[in-house]
Amino acid sequence: MTHAFSGKYAIAGMAFLAGRFPGKTARTLEVEAVRLAIEDAGLRREDVDAAINTRIESGSGESRGWTDSYARILGLPAKTYFTVQRGGIMTHLAILAATQLLELGIATYVAVGYGATDWSDTRGAGERRQRHRERDGLWGRPHGDLAAASHHSFFASRHMHEFGTTSDQLGMVAVSHRRWACLNPRAQMYGRPLTLDDYRASPFFVEPYRKLDLCLQSDSGAAFVITTMERARSLRRPPIGVLGLGLGEAMRELWWEKRNYTNLAVATAKESAFGQAGLTLADVDVAELYDCFTTEVVLQVEDYGWCAKGEGGPFVASGAIAPGGSIPVNTGGGLLSGYYMADWTPFVEAVTQLRGDGGERQAKDAEVAIVSGHGGEILRPGMCSTHGTLLLGRDA
Amino acid sequence: MSWNKPLPNVDADNQPFWEGLRRHEFLVFRCKRCGRSYWPVAYCRACPPEPFYGNMEWVPASGRGRIFAFNVHRFAFHPGFADELPYVYALIELAEGPMYGTNVVGCEPAEVRIGMPVEVVYRDVTPDGDAAPFTLADVRPVAG
Ligand SMILES: [Zn+2]
Q: How much is the ipTM here?
């Protein structure tokens, strides 16, 4: 039994820019992505009557101060403009907000945008320096907990300890993602194949993590336009339906619950999203999973149920998530080998696949895709708390 | 010692903890009703919350625990840590229950194991300039 929400709203337009854009502001990259997304939908800017900005965190660097909006710069007649922000579930929360604007009749076409200059901000320090630097107000800074890798590697440490997961198995996550990236001409690592031996030669960064366990840096802009399925059907591109949406938080439990270090907060998010959609995991054709580090992929293939808890290492090492495997995971190369746009990376790839625009990497008969989001640290040192599950589907 | 690393961020909620470290006491936030311990500030999950943490108090803990998870930093995200590499950053499961993240000192990184018993050791710091002195709580291996 599907929920009335399932399939009622659709992604009508989508665009992104990712890679290296020196000299461009995050604001301008977002403006350009929104402009392209409106054009992609076959709409005019006069049609867009609500605008949402998304941010991974609550203002650091450039975004600490900027309140100027792409809606003003583009000249959108938006009745409302606001920001949603929490870790790597930006597209999930934006869809939650945007569909309510549509449901209440406040808006007819909602634009959602994102912009970042992560590569330009860190280019002086080498490609794999982490943009995500901890700011004041957090606990571990004087002890050297300064970057996401400083505490995210605890997930790997625990998974290795409890289940015997190996460095080579994490390496196979990196290798699988690179194989997908080599099929995606837009990926930053396109044309740069990676072997397990290359991974083994990669230096430890925050052991057990090597450089190649960490995601990339990108300058980026991404955007989509969402409306009702009914309206979307008369537009330029095939509409991609929102089938289900769910959310989870590790902080529902004490933050030091041991299982929070070998599980992400998938359970409630999965239950809500699949419940609304009336689908099961077997219905998912393409999985676009938040892969800030290699271990997050291992955790999610277990937490969603593609394999049992603890068996994620052997599962990814078997080639199951690589091209030709049983479940295509992060078909554009993901955050590890494609481009870093937080949950926008899995989102844009899911839309690309469901439209059949995947080129060489197109998954066969892709009708249902999952987009996961992850992040929103609750304290240092700690773990990411938040998780989002979004199910998208081709119009039936 | 001169200090070229980030300073702790002390605010009204965690100030008693940092003051405790100055006295070489490791404090946890304990429920007056049932004795469950928390860190950092949190209401007891088992007891009714009273106004402004009224049922909670900062009390000295044992300063003992076990390594729950750890990593070895081989890259300095801040120039102040360049001379410290490689350093061990670990999540300690305190005897009282909560976890605490800190550096493991007093042994080589290769000797650190999950489950290893540790105890708190205090590191007094007097930064140059206007910053107030503070104390950090590291841990070192101890006989189980
Ligand atoms: Zn209590």
A: 0.96
